[in-house]
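Lecture 7 notes: from sequence to structure.

We start with a single chain of 492 residues. Read the sequence below before looking at the structure.
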Amino acid sequence: MTRLLRGRLNAFARDEDGALIALTLILLIPMIVLGGMAVDLMRFESRRSELQNVTDQAVLAAANLKQQLDPSDLIYDYFAKAGAAANLSDAPRVTPVGGSREVEASGHVDVPTYFFNRTLGRYVFGDDNPLRATSVSTAIEGVTETEVSLVLDISGSMYEVVGNTGKRRIQLLQTAANQFVDDLLSAGNSNRMSVSIVPYSEQVNIGPDLFDQLNTNHRHDYSHCVEFDTTDYASASIDLAKTYDQTEPIQTNSYGFLYDRDRNNRNLDQPVCPRFDAERVTLFSQNATALKTQINALQPRGGTSIFQGLKWGAALLDPSMRPAIAALPDTARDPAFANRPNDYDVSRNSGETATAKYLILVTDGENSQSQRLFPRWKDTPSELEYFAYHNLPYALEYRLEGNASNYVYQKYSASDAVAWMRSMCDAAKDAGIKIYAISVTGEDNSSTAEAGRTEMRNCATEPSLFFKSTGANLDAIFEQISSQITALRLTQ
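Now the structure, written as tokens:
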């Protein structure tokens, strides 16, 4: 009997039948608890999402400047219609600032739980219903602190007539840009919306006031353009401690004003550095009349260096320029913007609003090469003065000996310009500048034009911010951009 019992006990010990049942019984209760908690969390997230949607819709509707109802009443009504009147946490906050309206609302809802309150709720949270869903939304329509660089191509090809419109590209651009300025500087945007105009051809004339704030090899007053090197195009900033070369007065074509091809015209009507007052950069203005007067005075001339316009358009949005702008006389920029450009990012917790920065880039072509005088032909005041009043073809025909290659060299090639443009586009976008790119080459289907459009498309912050235009629809494009800059949007 003893041997029999011992054998049966040994057999029982070796028997593995039913082992999974025991394991299942051990794990069953935790599995049920965890599954139930997951159901509670799913119900919580569903209610939270519903509440957030109601809050978002309410503040968007209340911030809309076109609706005439009291914003706070509208938010209460949205919550009531959604069956969530009791879920509005506090009174809505409505902040009208000039032509803008910012609205903030918050809500909460307690979500009953069925497993939390019988397990973790009482013993961990000390509450039968530990889950409270909250929502916070802020919407704004209009502008807060906004800086815009309007970078405009004024190269010679902008003089061409567009299709059957009977108007030149520059005229169509002027009409569209004028309305754009009016839209941005509408009533209520006072001291918050600044516009800088950056006309460019082969160079950018920054004007004597800003020129004097930079460290330059200042040798003459015939131009106020500075020369950058490759490293300068890798950043949106300007190094105020660096010494920059001054662009000399030089015109390498014989064209007179607006394509007057009379070779007896000795004047510098299309120099490398734009020389006329309207072609100077306008800094941080909110004077719509003055801005439109300048736009209407622009005339096409010279080659195309898109990267130069990009560099200065981005620099005027970069905080590195703030000391130079602050040091300018009030006649050189609006006194309200003496401390601009603002920083790129400002924390909401600081009580300040981040400044929006936009660069609108317009061109009708591609980057071209550019030439400069050899140093030996600009090392005396008399030489500089001569080339400041005589274009090179005229001088070669009536005074100088040899050909152009004896006097000028290629400063950069078209391929150099494309590389620098790409670098500038990346630098500006990386810094936080939103780039709109408009290519006014829509009627040109050549491979060269398509290559130029590809560069502009890639330069835009995103594909939807690139526009291909014949010029005839520029007004609609600029209207779309101004609407986006002042659009109704959620900010939190």
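Confidence is low (pLDDT under 50) at residues 257-263, 347-352. Keep this in mind for problem set 3.
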